[in-house]
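User: Please fill in residues for this 299-position structure.
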């Protein structure tokens, strides 16, 4: 699978950072941005992000997002499989009378390959809706052995992977396809990306490109005092959203057109048919079986 740049939810970890298959991505900065606060009007207080349970009319849009708004369905799908993994592992541990080690809470992770500019403008890079915790029973007092823990974690991973196997391969092919939009210097997307440095400069940000911007945002947010962090993050998010809108104005239609061709390709016919006929029933069955909810972030 081709790497997909994603943004962390928590305000302290880096923004640039992870890929679905745990591949690492080196941040390439073409200029050394100045590490100083980003100044501008103080951001107005906004309401927290919400949750939605509304599925797309076509499940393809949940697996193969072409717009920022569609990527919220993709985020929810990713979170759902993680929660299935955790729920199955916890159930296995309870059955055998031991408690699992503490784990990092699941969070919605946004995709910078398909940026959700409306969400970023309102909530900044890191904040999103809170993932609801599934109901749980009191954990036993006994700590499991290493072997017991591995067995239950493996059981959870297997169940989650069985869900991912329904869409992971075609989704990886799709993200590889849309990555090509920014690789050809002659495309309209590439021309729009070249406007970023001047736009960033108008917002008081010295960054030569999108990756340099992420690197600067990382450093500013890592070094900001707790009292300054919300305003800093909000201003960074609003500046990014404003400067990326001309890029997305050409890239979203291009991605949508690419998806139309992608879906029509004979080599994808079986996978697309399976997405449309079996994915949602499988997700609903998993909801009932494992006690988790399929939900999506909303601005």
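Assistant: Residues filled in for all 299 positions:
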């Amino acid at each position: 699978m081709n790497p997909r740049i994603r943004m962390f939810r928590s305000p302290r970890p880096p923004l640039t950072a992870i890929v679905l298959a745990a591949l690492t991505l080196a941040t390439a900065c073409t200029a050394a941005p100045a590490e100083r606060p980003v100044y501008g009007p103080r951001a107005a207080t906004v309401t927290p992000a919400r949750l939605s349970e509304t599925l797309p009319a076509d499940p393809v849009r949940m697996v193969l997002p072409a717009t920022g708004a569609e990527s919220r369905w993709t985020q929810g799908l990713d979170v759902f499989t993680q929660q299935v993994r955790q729920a199955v592992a916890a159930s296995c541990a309870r059955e055998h009378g031991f408690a699992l080690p503490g784990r990092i809470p699941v969070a919605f992770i946004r995709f910078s390959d398909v940026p959700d500019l409306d969400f970023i403008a309102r909530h900044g890079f890191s904040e999103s809706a809170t993932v609801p915790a599934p109901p749980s029973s009191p954990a036993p007092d006994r700590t499991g052995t290493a072997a017991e823990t591995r067995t239950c974690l493996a059981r959870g991973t297997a169940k989650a992977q069985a869900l991912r196997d329904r869409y992971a391969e075609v989704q990886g092919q799709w993200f590889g396809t849309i990555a090509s939009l920014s690789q050809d210097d002659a495309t309209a997307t590439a021309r729009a990306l070249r406007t970023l440095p001047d736009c960033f400069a108008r917002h008081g940000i010295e960054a030569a490109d999108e990756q340099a911007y992420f690197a600067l945002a990382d450093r500013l947010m890592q070094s900001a005092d707790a009292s300054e962090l919300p305003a800093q993050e909000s201003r960074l998010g609003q500046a990014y959203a404003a400067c990326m809108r001309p890029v997305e104005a050409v890239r979203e239609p291009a991605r949508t057109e690419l998806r139309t061709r992608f879906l029509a390709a004979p080599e994808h016919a079986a996978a697309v048919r399976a997405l449309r006929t079996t994915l949602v029933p499988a997700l609903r069955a998993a909801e009932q079986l494992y006690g988790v909810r399929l939900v999506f972030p909303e601005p």
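For context: The chain has a mean pLDDT of 84.
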